[in-house]
Amino acid sequence: MSRCHDINISHINSNWSRDISASLYSLMSLIILATLVGNLIVIISISHFKQLHTPTNWLLHSMATVDFLLGCLVMPYSMVRTVEHCWYFGEIFCKIHTSTDIMLSSASIFHVSFISIDRYYAVFDPLRYKAKMNILTIFVMILISWSVPAIFAFGMIFLELNIKGVEELYLKQAGCLGGCSAFFSKVSGVLVFMTFFYIPGSVMLFVYYRIYFIAKGQARSIHGTNLQIGSEEKHRMPQSKETKAAKTLGIVMGVFLICWCPFFFCMVLDPFLGHAIPPTLTDVLSWFGYLNSAFNPVVYAFFYPWFRRALKMIVFGKIFQKDSSRSNLFF
Question: Residue 48 is part of a domain; what is its CATH number?
Fold first, then answer.
């Protein structure tokens, strides 16, 4: 497979110039590298330091693993497809790549949804938080975040449920030799949009809306109490810590929604527009979504002091010292 044979005008193969191709390869390689390095540091930090072995952090660890695998297994092949306008890796691997892409992208929003629920209980009911969000609960959340997208994505693509009822249109619109783009019917497109974006996204927005007002109300209450008893600093610290964590994870959620919104809306509208949206635009929007996987570690580094301290120890090789796993990252 060396070139795409275009059947429809929407599949016109407009090759980039050599300079543009080189620039795109460089830019996308930087995104991939940032995704791999940043998320690998999160994975190593939480795995190595015993202080970080908390239920919430295992959720972050699992989400970082999703982002790392997206950068490792999906993005390099998407880069070649985007720049070359062709798929050189065969039909079977195209299905594997598309399934893996959908699975990992969907797993990300599942993780962020569960993290929002975790933060809700941390702020709303801190006294019973540890009892409710124990390691078993987190394990179930992680299992759902991985298994449901995997079954859905691989089942849909390999059973060709995504093109059921529009097989002829698929062959006419997307059936070009060397091409590999996700194609959805109206029903499958709406189902994917609702299941993996709209419903979880609505849950996250509602949860963080509640968190904001709960944290704001608690802050006013604690501030008033502290003024009366004259011990503001003593009582403010635990609440400020939880509020900061909620804001940080709220930013993670916001970045995710901003990055993936354009792609999901494009995906769900395309079947209703007769699949008139150019594949190049879809590729660009998918890369905008991939950026989310590179941004998450940056958010951690900016807001979490423990992450910055862990990063320094990893960069300078201090994690290879004896008992480094017991280092205090919260001083």
Answer: 1.20.1070.10
Q: Give the structural domain span for 58.
A: 18-224+241-326
Both tokens assigned to 50: 């015993």
Give the total number of structural domains in the chain: 1
pLDDT over 90 at 11, yes or no: no
Q: Which two tokens stand for residue 163?
A: 């093109």
Interacting residues of 54 by C-beta distance below 8 A, sequence separation 6+: none
Are the beta carbons of 152 and 165 closer than 8 angstroms? no
For range 228-246, the mean pLDDT: 53
Close Cβ partners of 194 (under 8 Å, ≥ 6 residues apart): none
- Residue with more model confidence, 250 or 128: 128
* Rounded Cα gap, residues 264 and 197, in angstroms: 7
Which residue carries 């209980």 as its tokens? 121
3-state SS, 84-140, equals HCCCCCCHHHHHHHHHHHHHHHHHHHHHHHHHHHHHHHHHHCCCCHHHHCCHHHHHH
